[in-house]
């Protein structure tokens, strides 16, 4: 009896829980970007192939890092690869995976390309078996019975459709291959899940053919090369780029220095030389003497692009080029004095010894050295004057 009561209680509890569960997916898809899955008391979001769930648990981000299950190699500028036989997707999901990885579902526009693909599929079959049906990039989703390739171009003269292939509204095309049978295209509902084959334009820029200061642009298939274009401020053929020297086309003043501004700048800067002023394209001499005498103690002389200081007689210019120091003339050849030279501020004086006298030239002396000058005698002549009545 106790077991029956417990069982009834549990069943009732489960029924109540089921009855009270809220289906979050019923409103706005639960906020999920792709698929919302309701569960008892909760829900979860998931993403279609080629996408990964964002950290917010709702959004789906493109996942371009899918590794191809089989890389067929390069064909006329395209890299072709197929999915694993266990990875089967709807047409739209398969197309998204190819797009996210930088390509499209494979577009088979000639027999040579189809032979290349089928040969690789046959090799895979002999090495462990692979899927036998693959989505290719052809559909009539936009206009019934008007089949377009994924790049928007119409179906051309080449095709491998079977005349008895069933046709429904808005169909997509598969490539199938079977042993000892020619490859064929079949029209299938786009919601079916099959393996798929992608093609990606071979990116010639991956080999870094351009200069570090250039932009590499892959040339569309069937081209196998890329175009290199130097960035703004650089010149060259793209494989080698150098900074454009704007000074070659900039008119700076003859008394200015031109400095090229680094790329991407396309101009240069003109700066007047020391001693000149202006905007660099026009420079004029600065009269340094006009302000505070140029810092000179005595005389300031302005020169073109410069100036110089000089001193009055009796002074010599200091090593700083501005101050003036007294010139001790007596230190050189006794100032030119014959006997005694006495230095004074800005000048000097010559003097003599003993009975000598300084001559009018201010330098030489006359007389007997060391003796006092002799007394000079005055000779007078006497005469009488007679006064008569």
Automatic annotation (TrEMBL):
Q: Which domain of life is it from?
A: Eukaryota
Tell me which InterPro entries the record gives. C-type_lectin-like (IPR001304), C-type_lectin-like/link_sf (IPR016186), C-type_lectin_domain (IPR051505), cEGF (IPR026823), CTDL_fold (IPR016187), EGF (IPR000742), EGF-like_Ca-bd_dom (IPR001881), EGF-type_Asp/Asn_hydroxyl_site (IPR000152)
User: Which intervals hold domain EGF-like?
Assistant: 21-61, 201-242, 243-284, 285-321
Q: What membrane topology is given?
A: Single-pass type I membrane protein
Which SUPFAM superfamilies does the protein's record reference? C-type lectin-like, EGF/Laminin
Q: Name one GO molecular function term.
A: calcium ion binding
Q: What is its main location?
A: membrane
List localization entries: Membrane; Secreted
Signal sequence span is 1-19
Write the record's keywords in alphabetical order, separated by commas. Disulfide bond, EGF-like domain, Glycoprotein, Lectin, Membrane, Phosphoprotein, Repeat, Secreted, Signal, Transmembrane, Transmembrane helix
Give yes or no: UniProt keyword Nuclease.
Answer: no
Q: Which residues form the C-type lectin domain?
A: 75-199
Protein name (Swiss-Prot/TrEMBL) = Signal peptide, CUB and EGF-like domain-containing protein 2
Species source reads Branchiostoma belcheri
Q: What is the lineage of its organism?
A: Eukaryota, Metazoa, Chordata, Cephalochordata, Leptocardii
Q: What gene is it encoded by? A: LOC109488275
């Amino acid at each position: 009896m106790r077991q029956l009561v417990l069982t009834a209680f549990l069943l009732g509890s489960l029924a109540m829980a089921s009855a009270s569960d809220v289906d979050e997916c019923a409103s706005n898809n639960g906020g999920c970007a792709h698929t919302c899955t309701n569960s008892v008391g909760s829900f979860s979001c998931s993403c279609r192939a080629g996408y990964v769930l964002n950290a917010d648990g709702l959004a789906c981000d493109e996942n371009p890092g899918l590794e191809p299950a089989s890389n067929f190699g390069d064909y006329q500028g395209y890299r072709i690869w197929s999915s694993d036989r266990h990875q089967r997707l709807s047409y739209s999901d398969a197309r998204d995976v190819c797009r996210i990885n930088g390509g499209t579902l494979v577009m088979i526009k000639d027999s040579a390309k189809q032979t290349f693909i089928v040969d690789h599929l046959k090799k895979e079959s002999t090495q462990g078996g692979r899927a036998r049906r693959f989505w290719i990039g052809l559909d009539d989703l936009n206009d019934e019975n008007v089949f377009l390739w994924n790049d928007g171009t119409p179906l051309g003269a080449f095709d491998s459709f079977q005349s008895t292939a069933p046709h429904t509204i808005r169909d997509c095309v598969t490539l199938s291959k079977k042993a000892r049978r020619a490859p064929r295209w079949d029209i299938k509902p786009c919601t079916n899940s099959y393996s798929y084959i992608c093609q990606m334009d071979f990116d010639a820029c991956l080999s870094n053919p351009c200069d570090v200061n250039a932009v590499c642009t892959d040339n569309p298939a069937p081209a196998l090369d890329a175009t290199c274009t130097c960035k703004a401020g650089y010149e060259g053929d793209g494989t080698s780029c150098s900074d454009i020297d704007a000074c070659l086309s900039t008119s700076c003043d003859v008394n200015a220095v031109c400095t090229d501004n680094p790329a991407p700048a396309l101009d240069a800067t003109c700066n007047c030389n020391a001693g000149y002023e202006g905007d660099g394209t026009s420079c004029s001499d600065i009269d340094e003497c006009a302000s505070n005498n140029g810092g000179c103690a005595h005389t300031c002389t302005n020169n073109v692009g410069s100036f110089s200081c000089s001193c009055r007689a009796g002074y010599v210019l200091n090593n700083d080029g501005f101050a003036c120091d007294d010139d001790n003339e007596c230190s050189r050849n006794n100032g030119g004095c014959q006997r005694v030279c006495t230095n004074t501020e800005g000048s000097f004086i010559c003097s003599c010894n003993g009975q000598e006298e300084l001559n009018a030239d201010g330098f030489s002396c006359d007389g007997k050295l060391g003796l006092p000058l002799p007394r000079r005698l005055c000779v007078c002549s006497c005469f009488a004057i007679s006064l008569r009545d």
